[in-house]
């Protein structure tokens, strides 16, 4: 067997496992979100309409089937919630597209001039265990807007040659300190500034902005409130880091390691992990946390670019919306069409979906149809 073949098998196997996890997470997320509204009863039309979008992701529209696009198989014909935060299936698609753009911008900045620098800044606020996520997000996002809109920031930008920036928000949760919302900001600078000096200057502005919005809060930590790192060779890696999925174990890592416990040792969890089996928390708590996460992130932006960065770096058009990214990803050639019962069964069976999509990608369409047929106990119509 050639190495390529072995690598391809391994990758396909990891992808299958990763998909299985994501589909299982979506099932659980939806069960919780539906249950919260219906309390285990059949939902009324009004209740259905009021469900948050991630609760409806994957519901069939018409002509449901399996399609192939660029070698990847996927279920087609279902609703997609296009949530950049809280959907185990849509979020990774959106984030990886945003990462592509960011990689392009970083590459462009490095290529244009040797002296150009990149600085990676992390901004946090002190918080307590019982704090609500929505309030934290408001504070962090609001403080950033305030700081960035200030004259002092503009003066700092002039002095240190900050030309562009990209800002992304990350949310984690831990049993000891509760919700944690913080910002990663990538600064595009004319030359590489001194990290220590820059940290001091940004700290003053950040602490002021946070204090202005919430005077009663503990002051921003001198040591951890602002972290400034000069990006040397890791520019591209960091670009990926900025837009990675909220799942700490990003897809690339999942491909190579697949150790599902890995991310938990540090104590802080990415929100998707709340949907996994085997967490050391009772279900009522995880349910409540997950629902709070879905509600608090609704319509929030994950990543924002400074005004001229996209056009200056040669990225065509305006920034695509989350919905456009998802719609773009839904092309492909129809391979198998599914009956409504077959589709419903697949939606409830993460392992069968994952195995079926993998079979289609491996070119084993008849076998995939047999698997679906056996699982649903009915014949498949493969002519779409
Ligand atoms: Zn979705």
Walk me through the structure:
The chain has 384 residues and is an alpha+beta fold. The chain folds into 2 domains: 3-82 and 334-376, no CATH class; 90-326, no CATH class. 49% of the residues lie in helices and 16% in strands. The chain has helices at 3-38, 45-49, 53-56, 90-112, 133-148, 151-160, 195-213, 235-243, 251-256, 283-297, 309-312, 322-329, 340-348, 350-361, 365-376, and strands at residues 60-69, 72-78, 117-123, 162-174, 178-189, 226-231, 303-305, 333-337. It has a 5-stranded antiparallel beta sheet with strand order 6-3-5-4-7. A 3-stranded antiparallel beta sheet has the order 2-1-8. β4 (162-174) and β5 form a beta hairpin. α4 (90-112) packs antiparallel against α8 (235-243) and α14 (350-361) runs antiparallel to α15. It is globular. Zinc ion binds next to loops.
């Amino acid at each position: 067997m050639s190495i390529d073949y072995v690598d391809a098998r391994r990758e396909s196997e990891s992808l299958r496992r990763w998909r299985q996890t994501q589909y299982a997470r979506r099932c659980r997320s939806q069960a919780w979100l539906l249950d919260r509204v219906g309390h285990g009863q059949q939902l009324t039309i009004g209740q259905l309409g009021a469900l948050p979008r991630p609760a409806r992701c994957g519901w069939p529209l018409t002509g449901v089937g399996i399609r192939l696009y660029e070698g990847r198989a996927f279920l087609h014909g279902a609703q997609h919630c296009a949530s950049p935060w809280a959907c185990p299936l849509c979020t990774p698609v959106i984030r990886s597209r945003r990462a592509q753009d960011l990689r392009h911008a970083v590459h462009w900045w490095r290529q244009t001039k040797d002296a150009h620098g990149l600085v990676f800044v992390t901004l946090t606020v002190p918080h307590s265990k019982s704090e609500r996520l929505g309030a934290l997000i408001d504070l962090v996002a609001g403080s950033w807007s305030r700081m960035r809109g200030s004259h002092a920031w503009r003066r700092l930008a002039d002095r240190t040659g900050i030309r562009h920036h990209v800002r992304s928000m990350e949310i984690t949760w831990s049993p000891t300190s509760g919700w944690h919302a913080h910002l990663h900001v990538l600064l595009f600078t004319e030359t590489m500034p001194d990290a220590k000096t820059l940290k001091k200057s940004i700290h003053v502005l950040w602490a002021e902005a946070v204090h202005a919005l919430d005077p009663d809060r503990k002051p921003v930590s001198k040591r951890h409130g602002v972290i400034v790192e000069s990006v040397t060779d890791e520019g591209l890696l960091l670009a990926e880091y900025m837009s990675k999925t909220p799942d700490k174990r990003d897809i690339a890592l999942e491909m190579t390691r697949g150790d599902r416990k890995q991310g938990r040792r540090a104590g802080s969890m990415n929100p998707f992990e709340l949907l996994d089996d085997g967490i050391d928390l009772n279900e009522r708590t995880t349910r409540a946390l997950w629902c709070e996460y879905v509600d608090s992130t609704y319509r929030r932006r994950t990543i924002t670019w400074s005004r001229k960065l996209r056009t200056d770096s040669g990225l065509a058009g305006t920034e695509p919306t989350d919905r456009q990214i998802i719609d773009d990803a839904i092309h492909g050639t129809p391979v198998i069409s599914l009956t409504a019962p077959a589709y419903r069964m697949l939606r409830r069976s993460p392992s069968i979906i994952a195995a079926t999509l993998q079979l289609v990608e491996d070119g084993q369409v008849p076998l995939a149809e047999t698997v679906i047929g056996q699982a649903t106990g009915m014949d498949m119509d493969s002519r779409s």
